[in-house]
Design a protein that fits this description.
Blueprint: H1 2-29, H2 36-51, H3 59-77, H4 81-96, H5 105-119, H6 122-136, H7 141-146, H8 151-167, H9 169-177, H10 185-205, H11 230-256, H12 267-292, H13 303-333, H14 338-363, H15 367-387, H16 390-401, H17 414-419, H18 425-432, H19 439-462, H20 466-479, H21 509-523, H22 530-533
Helix pairs in contact: 1-2, 1-10, 2-3, 2-4, 3-4, 4-5, 5-10, 8-9, 11-13, 12-13, 12-14, 13-14, 14-15, 16-18, 18-19, 18-20
Length: about 525
């Protein structure tokens, strides 16, 4: 048993050292974080799964490992904060599932949080443990007893030697002449980077056994809430169904069938003003069902109440569909943005959550089941969002529906496309290839496209990603050997975010503040003299 444990420990040390060397080459030598992050994530996942033997016997852990590999591929395509967070969740799940029973996602999130903090002390805790084992060993006690004493002076001495070599060229040149590596501030930060990488990977290769414990949840049945009874819930549901029917009938008449709106009310204003308040209404409806109709409660067992709830939730789902239609109508009049895409996704998740709430009541499911089901739906959506470039989706839609392209929408918002950077590059070039563009718009478009193309080239040089490389290849295929038009003259004072010329120099802040202060002093009343005060 002792040999197997020592061999496993050595294998984990070797894997951690290999991952640190790989990270040093990917992030330090190549000089940039791009698709290299995905390569490192995949290697980290493979090492963790291979050395976590308990994960091989748990289907959930293996599924989490497969998800981590999938997210690693997403990070290789284009790194993003959302994908990094999802990767950390999946990899921590691979390590924790063989050790801790999964109950519901709320507690699991807390366990992962504790796991992350405990992992920061992992290497140092193992170093202390090695020292204790060395002191109790019978053979080689003197040599092993020295081992825990060495890291602090070695690490501290290396740090101070690096700083002295950076500050004093005589020390630096002497170290270089005797064949030691260059000790400068860059070396110091590089060694610090190695330590951070080793700490992160060691957290999954040799996880801590520190996990929070939770008391068993009390049964939801039998919790009496003031004001909630069979009669009050029945009357409330009848009232709510009537009110929701009125709103849904109005939406059905004006949104779904296209009936003319009253004078002074445009379709855009009708759609935009109601989308988000209606979603808040649906959320309140779901909260009411959760509180007033818990599985096993007296209200949930009444057949009339159950039918009223089903009808009410069906109306809520239709209300959410109307909110989605309102948002789509507003987008057709104006433009699509990443925020509006996120709003549409959120509305769809609200509808899924309402259906799950009713199913929980009908099937007498637990609160943990409801939490896990909603978390699974949200996780699936977030995984898709981390893989899809929403900015590119918005830019392509806006270009193809803009007024300049013959669409029914507003004039193309070049300033917003400029903010999207590389995500808007292909859409901008697609618009630039269209014939008969207004001259002023064509100049502004060429300027924004040129700026976006330069930003994409800079990103490829500093942090290559497969997604940006594909953009450049798609751009070359669209042009078919033709060259892009030269960017317009930047003008005397530069151009705005939409490519329009700046009409004058930017105001001098200090001069403006001084002028404002002088004007304020001039308008202030003169102080009273001593004679006047007397």
């Amino acid at each position: 048993m002792r040999v197997r444990i020592e061999s496993s420990f050595i294998a984990k040390v070797a894997a951690a050292a290999a991952l640190v060397a790989l990270g040093d080459w990917l992030f330090w030598d190549i000089d940039g974080v791009g698709s290299t992050l995905g390569v490192f994530a995949i290697a980290w996942t493979v090492a963790t799964v291979l050395l976590t033997l308990g994960a091989w016997r748990r289907l959930g852990a293996m599924v989490a490992g497969a998800v981590a590999l999938l997210i690693g591929a997403i990070l290789f395509d284009d790194p993003g904060l959302l994908a990094v967070l999802l990767f950390g969740w999946a990899l921590a799940t691979v390590v924790l599932l063989p050790r801790v029973r999964f109950d519901h996602v709320g507690r699991w999130a807390l366990r992962i949080l504790v796991f992350c903090f405990a992992g920061l002390i992992g290497p140092w805790a193992d170093l202390i443990r090695i020292g204790r084992l060395a002191r109790t060993a019978n053979q080689g006690a003197k040599l092993r007893g020295w081992l825990p004493l060495l890291p602090l002076p070695l690490i501290g001495g290396a740090v101070f030697l690096t700083l002295f070599a950076s500050a004093n060229p005589l020390i630096g040149d002497t170290l270089a002449r005797i064949g030691l590596p260059s000790f400068d501030i860059t070396t110091f930060f590089r060694v610090l980077f190695w330590g951070l990488l080793f700490t992160f990977v060691w957290a999954t290769l040799r996880p801590r056994r520190i996990q929070p414990t939770f008391a068993e949840a009390q049964s939801e049945v039998g919790l009496d809430l003031p004001g909630i009874s069979t009669g009050s819930v029945t009357l409330a549901l009848i009232t709510f169904n009537a009110l929701f029917a009125l709103e849904n009938l109005l939406d059905l008449a004006f949104l779904w069938t296209g009936a003319p709106l009253p004078k002074g009310v445009s379709l855009a204003s009708y759609a935009h003003q109601g989308a988000y308040p209606l979603i808040a209404t649906a959320l309140l409806a779901g909260l009411f069902v959760l509180v007033a109709l818990r599985p096993g409660s007296d209200t949930a067992r009444v057949p009339l109440i159950r039918r009223l709830v089903i009808a009410w939730v069906a109306q809520n789902v239709f209300l959410v569909a109307s909110s989605i239609l309102r948002t789509v109508d507003y987008i057709q009049v104006y433009q699509l943005t990443e925020l509006r895409i996120a709003a549409l996704i959120w509305m769809a998740l609200v509808a899924v959550g309402l259906v799950l709430i009713v199913w929980r009541m009908l099937a007498a499911k637990s609160g943990a089941w409801l939490i896990n089901a909603n978390a699974l739906a949200a996780g699936f959506v977030l995984l898709i969002c981390s893989a899809v470039d929403l900015g590119s989706v918005a830019a392509t839609w806006n270009v193809r529906h803009a007024k300049e392209a013959g669409g029914q929408g507003q004039a193309l918002d070049l300033c917003y496309l400029n903010q999207l950077n590389s995500s808007a590059l292909v859409a901008l070039v697609e618009m630039e290839q269209r014939p008969n563009l207004p001259p002023d718009f064509a100049q502004r478009l060429a300027w924004v496209r040129h700026h976006t193309l330069q930003q994409t080239r800079i990103r490829l040089a500093t942090g290559w990603t497969w997604r940006n490389q594909r953009r450049m290849e798609q751009l070359a295929a669209m042009l078919g050997g033709r060259k892009l038009p030269a960017p317009p003259d930047p003008g005397q004072y530069g151009r705005n975010c939409d490519g329009s010329l700046v009409t004058g120099p930017a105001p001098d802040r200090e001069a403006t503040d001084a002028a404002n202060e002088a004007a304020a002093n001039a308008s202030a009343p003169a102080p009273l003299t001593n004679a006047a005060s007397r």
